[in-house]
Fold:
Amino acid sequence: MLNALRTFLLAAVAAATLAVPAFAQAPIKIGVLTPLSPPGDAAAGQFIVRGAKMAAEEINGQGGVLGGRKIELIVEDDAGTPEKGAAGLRKLVSQDHVVAVVGQFHSSVTEAVQDLAEQLKVPVFLTQASAKKLTEKHLTYTFRTHVIDPDRVTLWNKWIQQQGFKRVAILAENTDYGVGLVEETKKQFASMNVKADLKTIIFDRAVVDLTPQLLEIKNWKPDLFINVGIGTPMYLISKQAYDVGLVPATPMLISYDAPARPEYWKNLGEKGTYATFIVYYHPTMKLTPRGEAFRTRYLEQFKEQPVYGGLNAYAQVMLVADAINAAKSDKPDDIVKALLGTKFTGWNGTVAFTRGEGPYWQQWTPPMLFLQYGKPEQPFTEAKIVYPPELKTGDLMMAPKR
Amino acid sequence: MDAYLLSQYVLSGLVIGLIYSLMAIGITFIYGIMKMINWSMGEFYMIGSYVQYALLATVLGWDLWYLALPLAMASVFLLGIVVQRFLLRPMYLGGLERRDEYATIITIALMVLFRNLAIVLGGPNQFSPKDYARATSLLTLPISGNRMVALVGTVVLLLLFYVLTRKTWVGRAFRGAAQNRVGIQTAGVDVLRLDMLAFGVGVALAAAAGALLAPDFLVYPENGAISTFKGFEIIVIGGLGSLMGSVVGGLLLGLIEALGSVFLSPGYKDLYGFVLLLGLLAFRPTGLFGERERTV
Structure:
C-alpha cells in the first residue's frame, strides 16, 4: 500500500515537473470572430478564416512568437448579428482567453463587439467593417485596416462627376453600413457640389422581394444605380433589378467586392454582366514581399486568386504576431501599446496606427478600385479597372439594349 | 400617380401574394386537419429549394426544372410523412386527446435542426438554379421568367389541391376530419393515418413554393423565414383553417403591400400587411373567412 502511494506521488511530481515547460510554451490564442452562417455574409467569413489560418500556419512554421510559442486560432461565428457577435466575443475572451480578435465584417455587429471589447480590454480588428462611426468613437481597443465609408463615398462621387451621371439612385439595406452610406452620400453631394439628382431607398435586410422598390427606381429613370446590399441582399437586388429591366441598361455599381468571389457568376449568371464593383485588391497590384508570399501560397493551395478579405485577415494576424513580439508580451494592453508605437508590414504597404481626427483613429486604409465585368463568366483577373483614372485599364462599358 | 406605374405595382403585388398563398394553404391545411401549427413550415420550403437545386445541379441538368419540381415535392412529402409518423403522432393520446404544446416544441426544434443541417450539408452560402424561363411581361409588368413559372405553377397546384380536397374520397375524409375528428373515426377512417397524409401534403406545398421561387429568391439555409412570415400573415388575414381565405388573404396582402409602396414608401413594404392584419383583427378577429369555433 505504502509502495503504491510512493509510486503515485513520484508519478505526480514527475508529471508536474514535465508540465512546467509545457505551460511556459502554451500557445497564444487569437480569436477570429466573423460571419460563418446566415444572415451574415458567410462566404466573406470563410475567406477571412482561410487567410487567418494561413497566417497562423506561417507564423508557427517559422517558430512561433516570443521565442517559440505557437499561435492558436479560435474561430467563432457571429452570424452577422450583433447579439451573436457579442456572445462570441465574450466566449473568446472569458473562456478561450484570446489576446486579440480579428475578422469583423458587418458594421452592425462590430458596433456591439467593439463596445464589449472596450470593457473586456482586448483589441479587435475590423477586417471589412467600414461604417465611419466605428473608429469615430475613438475607442482604445478598436483597430481597422479597411476603407471607411466617407472615403468610399468620396470616390464614387468623384466617379459620378467624371462620368457626368445626372440621376443617381441608391437602394440600401437597413444596416449601419447601408444607412451610413446613404447619409454620407447625401452629405457629400452637397459638400462636393455634385450636380446630380439623388434618390435613396432603404429596405429591410430580411425582405426578399424587392420588386416594388426596383420598379420605383426604374420609373425614376436613373443613369446610375448603386446596389448597397451585403451578401444575399446584394444578389437579390442584382437579380431582380435585371428582371424588372433596370439593369444592365442602367449601369449598376455594387458597393463592395463580393463580385470578386467565385460564387458571383454561379449565383447571377449573365445577369451579373456589366456590373461595376468596388475592390481593394486586384491581381495586378504590386504587393509587399509578405503579401506576395501569401498570394503565391494561396494560388498553390486553392488554385484561385486570393480575395481581399483573406488577404486582410492574413495581414491582421501577422501584425498581431509582430505586435506581440514587439511588446515582448502577450498581454492585450501591451499589444495595444505596441500596435500604436510600431510600423508593421502589411499585404501592400506599411501599416501604422495613428490617432487621427474623426474616423481616422487607429485606422489604416487600403486602396480602392472600381472594376467592371464586360462579359459573362469573366474571370476576376480580367475585369477592367474603370476608376480611378491613374490606374484605369478600360472605360466604363454600357450594355447593349436587350 | 402614374397609372402605368400603379398597374405595375398592383400586378407585382398580386403575383407574389398568390405565390405566398401556396405557403399559407400548407399551414392552414395542416392546422385544419391536425389542429396544430407547424412552425417549421419555412424549413420545408427551404428543403424544397435545396432538393430542387441539388437535382438540377447534379442529376437532371438545368433545363429539366419541371421534372425536378414534382420530385422535390415528393421528397418533402415523404419527409413530412416520416416526421408526422415518428415525431408528431405521439402528440395524440388515443387518437383524440391532443397535447398542443408538444407540437409547438417539436416543430420549433425541427426548425432549428433543419436550418443547421442545411448549413452542415450545403454550407452557409447562397445557391441559385439557372433561370427556368426567359424574362417576359405580364400586361404592364416586366416579370422574370421564373416568377411567371412560379405563378403558373401556383395556379396549377391550387387547382390540383382543389380537385384533391373536393373531388376525391380522401379529400372528403380530409374535410370530415377538419370538421370533426371523432365523427370521422366513427365512419371508419384512421384519423392518425389521415394526419400523416395531410402533413405530407401541407409540407409538399411549402416545398413547391421553395422550388418555384429558388432562382428568384435563392437557396440558402434561412430562405424559408420570410415566406413563413408571409404565410402566417395571410392565414390570419384570411381566417385560420379556411382554404379560400388563404388565397384571398394572399392576394389582399400582395395588393396592400403594393399600394402602400406606391402611395407611402416602398421602404416600409412589409409594414403595411401588419397594419392590415391589426386593423382586421380589431373588427373581425376570426379573419375574413374564418369561423368562430363552437365546442360542446
Summary: Residues 85 and 196 of chain B are 6 Å apart (CA to CA).
